[in-house]
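Continuing the series of single-chain predictions for the mutant panel. This is the parent chain; the variants come on the following pages.
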Amino acid sequence: MSIFPEVAKGNQLQEGIETQKVADVIINQLKLWGVKRIYGVIGDAIFGLMEGLSRQNDLEWIGVKHESVAAMMASAEAKLTGRIGVCAAQMGPGLTNLMTGLGDAYLDRVPVLAISGQAPTPKIGTAYKQYIDQQGLVQAITGFSRIVVHPNAVVDTLTQAMFTAMEQAIPVHLSIPSDLWTLPCGTQPREPIRIINQIAGQSQLQQAANLMLKAKRPLILAGNRANHACDAIRKLADRWGCGIVVSYGAKGIIPDSHPYLLGGLGEGGNPFASDLCKQADVVLAIGTSWWPEYHVPKNAQVIHIEERISAIGEVIPSQVGIVGNIAEIIQALTEGMTDYRSNPAAN
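Parent structure:
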């Protein structure tokens, strides 16, 4: 039984507005934001979501045997496509099982939306079966977590969650009480917020180019957020004559056959890459916040390229930070290297 009977009746009676159930509004907004599928395990607290999915054919449900797999698959989709990955789970143990996959997305900085069922609204905060404080549980590995406690709040909350996930490249979470899914919603789905992604200013590019032109032992460190700029990275490496090392999450974005690929750092990487990295005098760190201890060159000048300013200097100490479209920035730097002559001794 809902605690909002007057609101539900009022939403149904609004003239000129076609009301939909909360589940339908959530599904339609996910589709507007480019979501193609939801990974998850069915439980009674999300039966309303499953009913909504059964009424349409565009958003696909991918059922798995364990929620940790669902979150991992959502994280992998976000890494491969750049779009937000979505997973859903039952309240209580369903959400706790999502934690490993959400942690993976958090550490690799990719956008994932986790939707979990919750106790019906009259039972929130009680000893109701499988009730836990979901926001307290996930706060360490999400950038945003809210519980929706009113059907008309779902669009505002979902919009804020999805924008946070995309803008900050971080997992986010929503709790939906089980009695809200089927209530009429008096608000309409909202289209994504359009952010103009401008290329870095000329002064930033010139400062970076000046460092690169002086390099004798240059190196590129590529991370998983550079996966959509792999062609541009290969062209820059050819022009600059530099080695390329990759983070664990970026393995495969540069073909193993590339002559300048040195592999990865750390115990699972190329055992010789660490010494070569420490000899570098200029490092171009692209789409990564990963730099394992004891592998960092002490005297190198570091240029850090990211699509979001929040990632600059997060882990890697940088002399120059450049924010913008990664592929466009690398292309601009490559074009500015026309007169560069590599150091034969470094090759």
